[in-house]
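Researcher: Let's do a round of design. I'm pasting the structure tokens now; please hold your answer until I've finished.
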């Protein structure tokens, strides 16, 4: 997994000056999300959260989630080391891990943003099995409700995913945050961060 994503970190293949995690991780494009995510977490009583992958923590550093324990997980060692050095504290830690296969702690919420859109069906399936195996309560991840068909890719590429459609066939989300951007582009159109109970998936 590291081999698929390392070039995006070392060569900044997303081409975004603000964040090596890509254009979806800028402060501008997470403005609405940063406002609406903390109240959502408070509403469901979330105290523990995994952020997988955490990337370079660009927008999260300006977001007070209100949880008692945050764990950021990423597959790039240098990012994990940097994040822990700059942002780690008694309530926030960063660890190296592959979310498709490494054991995850049991938490209230697994946040998996801007990740599954870059995974093959095989790796999405592996990630979902690993999430469920953790015994965690909720999954918060991206879906594109306006998209009418899913397609497979090689891990590291990009496509939109509508998780309610086959081959995933998720039920309707418990809650949604529509990530509206002022500079709306086709790649982001309809992008939604949706909440599901893992036991329902």
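Researcher: That's everything. Go ahead.
Model: Designed sequence:
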């Amino acid at each position: 997994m590291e081999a698929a994503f390392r070039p995006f970190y070392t060569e900044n293949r997303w081409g975004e000056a603000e964040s090596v995690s890509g254009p979806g991780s800028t402060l501008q494009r997470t403005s609405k999300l940063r406002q609406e995510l903390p109240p959502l977490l408070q509403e469901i009583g979330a105290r523990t959260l995994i952020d997988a992958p955490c990337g370079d923590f660009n927008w999260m550093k300006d977001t007070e989630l209100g949880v008692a324990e945050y764990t950021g997980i990423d597959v790039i060692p240098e990012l994990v080391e940097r994040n822990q050095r700059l942002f780690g504290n008694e309530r926030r830690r960063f660890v190296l891990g592959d979310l498709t296969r490494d054991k995850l702690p049991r938490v209230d919420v697994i946040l998996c943003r801007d990740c599954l859109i870059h995974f093959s069906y095989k790796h999405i399936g592996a990630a979902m099995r690993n999430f469920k195996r953790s015994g965690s309560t909720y999954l918060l991840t991206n879906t594109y409700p306006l998209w009418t068909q899913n397609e497979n890719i090689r891990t590291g590429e990009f496509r939109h995913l509508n998780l309610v459609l086959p081959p995933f066939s998720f039920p309707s989300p418990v809650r949604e945050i529509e990530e509206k951007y002022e500079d709306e582009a086709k790649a982001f159109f309809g992008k939604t961060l949706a909440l599901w109970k893992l036991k329902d998936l």
